[in-house]
Amino acid sequence: MNQVHLIGGEKGGVGKSVMSRVFAQYCIDRNIQFQGFDSDRSHGSFMRFYQGFTEHVGLENFQSLDRLAEAALRGNDMQVIVDLAAQSSTALRGWLADTGVLELFREAGVMVNCWHILDDGKDSLDMLSNLLEEFKNEARYVVVLNHGRGARFDAFHASPQKQRTLELGGKIIELPKLHEGSMRLVDHSNSSFWAAINAGENGEQLLGLLDRQRVKIWLRRVYAELDTLGLRA
Fold first, then answer.
1. For residue 83, is it within any domain?
2. Alpha-carbon span 83 to 47, nearest angstrom
3. Could you give the number of structural domains in the chain?
């Protein structure tokens, strides 16, 4: 089954691009076909770190958005990963209404996955409510508890939003926190997670031994969460 993964959260700074990047690395390491799209005009980190697999998509340009739909309708077992910019729901809603693409996806057997990257703030929970109300049964939901952007998720676990997510057949996964210094080094290297933990052609290392070990352990934990989504070939 081909699938579209709309990785959002509406607010900035919740970790949408980090989730997109690690999901792309997961697909590479698991030999899963994917095409990435980066809608963030401000820094485009998804496209910067995975430029060989990712292209820019303009949320205000319907013809640009059409490319991600076309990618989702090609081949078999294709995963289309879309890193959504903050406050993108209005533009995305307009495109969906204009094209009737959800109906087209249903007819073609393409699964739409709406990802909500959650920090531990109330506004993030409120935005999850809006997402669930917007798509209802039109999509599958993946709620990501980002421990790099929140220390406690008690409010989510006691919330009607969690119950509604489960009622709709959604998945809830954890994004463990990577040590801030290690993540900073990876970001400053402008390299993929693979390049961060492996030697280059000339044997050079982007990270020191212990930072490489931290990233390896973190990737292992994230991959275990992503394995629960059933995408592994």
1. yes
2. 9
3. 1
